[in-house]
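Section: Multi-chain targets

For targets with more than one molecule, the full set of components is provided together so that the structure can be written out for the assembly as a whole rather than chain by chain. Components appear in the order listed by the source. The example entry contains four components.
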Amino acid sequence: MVRPDRRPTTVADVARHAGVSPGTVSKALNGGGQLKTETRQRVIRAAEELGFSPNALARSLISGRTYTVGILTTDSIGRFTIPLITGAEDALGAGQMAMFLCESRGDAIREQHYLRMLLARRVDGLIITGKSSNIRPSLGHDFPIPVVYALCQSESADDFSILHDDEQGAEMAIDHLLETGRRRIAHVSGPLSHLASQHRARGASTALARAHESMVGGGTMHGEWSEAWGREAALRLVRNGDPFDGVFCASDEIARGMTDGLRDSGVAVPSTVGVVGVDNWLVMAETSRPPLTTIDLNLSELGRRAATWLLTAIDGGELTAGIERIPATLVKRRSTEMEIS
Amino acid sequence: MVRPDRRPTTVADVARHAGVSPGTVSKALNGGGQLKTETRQRVIRAAEELGFSPNALARSLISGRTYTVGILTTDSIGRFTIPLITGAEDALGAGQMAMFLCESRGDAIREQHYLRMLLARRVDGLIITGKSSNIRPSLGHDFPIPVVYALCQSESADDFSILHDDEQGAEMAIDHLLETGRRRIAHVSGPLSHLASQHRARGASTALARAHESMVGGGTMHGEWSEAWGREAALRLVRNGDPFDGVFCASDEIARGMTDGLRDSGVAVPSTVGVVGVDNWLVMAETSRPPLTTIDLNLSELGRRAATWLLTAIDGGELTAGIERIPATLVKRRSTEMEIS
DNA sequence: CTGAAAGCGCTAACAC
DNA sequence: GTGTTAGCGCTTTCAG
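Its structure, encoded as tokens over all components, is:
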């Protein structure tokens, strides 16, 4: 692939080709100033003929704005960050903004490196994202550009974090199980150390208490975020002998394991036991037998909102310090369907 | 969050603070020119004290290089694009390059929009990626910057495409089944219309022919890339009555469905039938019962190579037109384990 | 060894 | 209406 390095056309080239001055080209192409329509047209045509594409760097140097934001992911890009990024891109693309993607993979050195790089490139703002399992250190209140923490909360209450709503989602899950007639409900979750587990357990308890019920087994069953744990939990519940007719699993993986485990033990879902998951992760939720009713954390909406807030901050708006939570929604599938009586 | 918009420090600020001229600052900080060590130190200290971060835009305007590449995904960011992006970032990060991420989502208009934007921002090069199921249109031989097509092949033989190796991977899968003593092997795949299906079928046939065997069922069984199809295929194979002892599934989803389906029919995996998948998608492969032996397409290596090639091209190297294929590797797990005889 | 000046590509203020 | 000029922040000659 031979590439003769003809450098890109500049305003000067266009000016010459149209027989005007560079200043006029700028005005014509940006709709500024008072130009004869004929001139404007001529310049525009010249620009098209030469395939002119204005150098964004030069523009930014003047305007002080790059129309670019950085997205820095604390850990790797994964199942949770993707919808977030996609949602953010949605909102940013509408504002003609570009997106630098940086993956620090949990490495503080790399994170510092990326932050320096992004600042050197004069991004207009920053979205920090990553694992939601823990609170992350703040970049500091005096960081030179607006920062939105999305999905992973900043330790500083002065920052603006935008998060999913585990607690409300969990309440929703339990309420749905109750509405479909279940009374004896268990909660199978991930590691106790994860914030998400704690919040989901709290939400579940709240909703159960409101209905004057308590958790089967006396409390949340903690384990891994895995199908294997879901299967094991199913076994334990069955073996334990305590009657139960509903299980709220804190992830779709656990829920899928749960339905498999229950089926293996001869327990019918949804007729005998209703199962709800979390994530609305399609490969799990739709493929599970039966397909899973699940809590969708609306992460792409979260990304969209994060970007939208960042844009307002960039435009001089103020970010109210604290936490905004995006409500979760319930997606109904077969695993909680009520019997047709 | 109040943000007094003090503009970033410039070389002029540093110069003043160090009592030298801007030119000297530049030399001191970039190791250029002949400077008294004392002066250099003084400038460096001044820069640190002021938290100076050189404006990359201004630099790029001069050098004509932005140390930035664009990654344009044809469809959405998904399971396949992530390792690719991560791999590319690996290679790019080492070269201090940043990455614009653009998701055109199969929309030609959006793609054009992004291309214009990336060119306006003067990226040094471009990686085009997306669904591997089809060949995509070329950006043209006269595109102003180097382009590498990764994962999705360009229709033009003049372009440089870097792809995974479906055919070699499939051969590897069949060879492994043969090595573990299977002779009557079936191949269950995705839609016939997908390039990947075609290539995998071809590789499977080649390897079988080499061993003087032919496919059980007389040919590839085409369906969806889904667990449901894997289960159904299992049923069909069992019902059909033709004896078989190995199944090469063209994806881990299909393979997982297959193991579930076989188990449901009372067929033991791996003792009676060996199963191989493709993708090494951990949530499928490791969670399957038994865990799946699978073909890893090494997509992060693909991303790394794509970026590496792009970097050489940016540095003036030539990209040999055509296709480079990254070899697949076999990951052994329980689903093909040989009996301990 | 260091400073002054020009210029990267563009826009905005001010002339004409 | 349009041209000229200065300057965004930096590097790079070229003087001194």
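The first helix of chain A runs from residue 11 to 18.
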